[in-house]
């Protein structure tokens, strides 16, 4: 609750378990390096294996932190423990390490090849947004709040981990604090973890490295180190300075949490006001009432997740939807998804390729996946006309359902799906 990163203020999700394993991994590693106890090294390796099976992002954090700590502390131990955790999983196939690592590798390769097609990080840190931000505070406060909490990473960093930035500045500016930290193994380790998150935040703010996740998420895993280090440093300041810094840290941190939480709720309210869910709800209800079974492709592709979650609540789904990022036998880096998509969308009055729009014509898609229906959001139709060279109605016939937001077509003669088509549906 005291961690002001956006995703953790929204809800506790599965990633929180990975964060817990990483914190325990780092604590075990620190104690092992301090005492030299073999069983603590073994515990760190086992915790590393738990990280691999829990969260791919947590694995990235553990590996990157370990590499940095080896360099910062001039010790091979952190790097060797990370390698040992991965090696243990590879040597024991039953643990499921190989499929997890394969999925992670495929996702990175896919992202690097498709970054330019409009990923969520592609419009971060745009120079025109940064320059216009001061003016937006007075002329467009809604846009200011959205950009400052989701798009401008220097501001996001300060809002996500104020304590990490304050501690690092104090340590770099005060030779006595630097001497205190480097003279104590425990404080030096914690400072290394804190600096590692700052460095990874800076690196992953660059577009090409954003495939390694949202930059600010690395602060979640170093929060324990920054908090412990802050408390440790307060104990060494003289009483007047200690009291002042305590209140500065406390109210500054609470102020950031209040701003972040308020900004999140305001963004949610504004999005809800701007949305018109009636058309989508109508389309979902119509499918539920009118379709007994089928294989459905949606534009945008991500729409399939929503329809599937609403319509397939039984153990055996009656409607299969095209999904991205499905592992298919004999295929690497989600090649089916990359091959299928890349159609045109208009964004900021510029036409560009999109990973959410099918590039291949509907006849080919229907033949490969045995598709029986297409659901298309109306705002994507102009892009499909540019991509397919004809209106969807000319290729698929008259719609069987339509409303203000969505159009649904039935494939005239639904072919049998290819042998492996089911791996891209569920």
Output the strand order for the largest sheet.
Answer: 2-1-5-7-6
Radius of gyration using CA atoms only: 25 Å
Percentage of residues assigned to helices: 55-70%
- Beta-strand portion reads 5-15%
The tally of helices reads 20
Shape: globular
Main sheet properties: 5 strands, mixed
Number of DSSP-assigned strands: 7
Structural class of the secondary structure composition?
A: alpha/beta
Stretches with pLDDT under 50, minimum 5 residues: 422-426
Query: What is the H-and-E element order?
Result: HHHHHHHHHHHHHHHEHEHEEHEHHEE
Task: Round the mean pLDDT to the nearest integer and report it.
Answer: 81
What's the N-to-C terminus distance?
36 Å
Describe the structure.
This protein has 426 residues and is α/β, with parallel strands linked by helices. The chain is built from 20 helices and seven strands. It has helices spanning 6-10, 15-35, 38-54, 56-73, 77-91, 97-114, 127-139, 141-150, 153-160, 162-173, 175-182, 185-204, 218-236, 239-274, 278-290, 303-311, 335-340, 362-369, 381-388, 392-396; strands spanning 294-299, 319-321, 341-347, 350-358, 373-377, 401-402, 406-410. Strands 2-1-5-7-6 form a five-stranded mixed β-sheet. Strand 3 and strand 4 (350-358) form a beta hairpin. The longest helix is centred in the middle third of the chain and has 36 residues, at 239-274. The protein is globular, with a radius of gyration of 25 Å.
Q: Any key phrases for this structure?
A:
alpha/beta, five-stranded mixed sheet, disordered C terminus, globular, two-stranded antiparallel sheet, 426 residues
């Amino acid at each position: 609750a005291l961690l002001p990163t956006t995703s953790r203020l929204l809800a506790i999700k599965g990633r929180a378990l990975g964060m817990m394993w990483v914190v325990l991994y780092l604590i075990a590693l620190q104690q092992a390096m301090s005492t030299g106890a073999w069983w603590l090294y073994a515990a760190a390796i086992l915790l590393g294996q738990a990280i691999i099976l829990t969260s791919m992002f947590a694995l990235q954090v553990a590996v990157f932190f370990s590499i940095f700590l080896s360099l910062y502390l001039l010790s091979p131990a952190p790097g060797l423990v990370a390698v040992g955790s991965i090696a243990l999983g590879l040597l024991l196939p039953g643990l499921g390490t190989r499929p997890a690592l394969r999925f992670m590798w495929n996702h990175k390769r896919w992202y690097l090849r498709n970054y330019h097609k409009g990923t969520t990080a592609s419009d971060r840190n745009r120079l025109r947004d940064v320059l216009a931000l001061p003016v937006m505070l007075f002329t467009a406060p809604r846009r200011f709040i959205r950009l400052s909490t989701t798009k401008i990473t220097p501001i996001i960093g300060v809002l996500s981990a104020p304590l990490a930035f304050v501690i690092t500045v104090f340590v770099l500016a005060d030779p006595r604090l630097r001497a205190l930290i480097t003279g104590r193994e425990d404080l030096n380790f914690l400072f290394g973890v804190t600096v590692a998150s700052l460095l990874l935040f800076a690196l992953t703010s660059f577009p090409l490295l954003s495939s390694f996740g949202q930059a600010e998420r690395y602060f979640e895993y170093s929060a324990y180190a920054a908090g412990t280090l802050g408390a440790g440093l307060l104990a060494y300041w003289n009483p007047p300075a200690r009291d002042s810094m305590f209140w500065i840290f406390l109210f500054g941190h609470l102020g950031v949490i209040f701003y972040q939480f308020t900004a999140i709720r305001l963004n949610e309210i504004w999005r809800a006001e701007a949305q018109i869910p009636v058309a989508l709800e109508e389309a979902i209800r119509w499918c539920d009432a009118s379709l007994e079974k089928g294989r459905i492709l949606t534009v945008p592709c991500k729409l399939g997740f929503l329809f599937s979650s609403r319509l397939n609540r039984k153990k055996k789904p009656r409607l299969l939807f095209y999904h991205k990022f499905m592992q298919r036998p004999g295929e690497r880096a989600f090649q089916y998804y990359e091959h299928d998509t890349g159609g045109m969308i208009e964004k900021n009055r510029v036409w560009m390729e999109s990973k959410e729009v099918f590039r291949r014509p509907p006849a080919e898609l229907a033949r490969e996946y045995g598709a029986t229906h297409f659901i298309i959001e109306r705002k994507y139709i102009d892009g499909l006309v540019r991509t397919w060279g004809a209106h969807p109605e000319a290729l698929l016939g008259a719609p069987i359902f339509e409303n203000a937001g969505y159009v649904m077509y039935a494939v005239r003669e639904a072919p049998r799906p290819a042998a492996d088509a089911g791996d891209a549906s569920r």
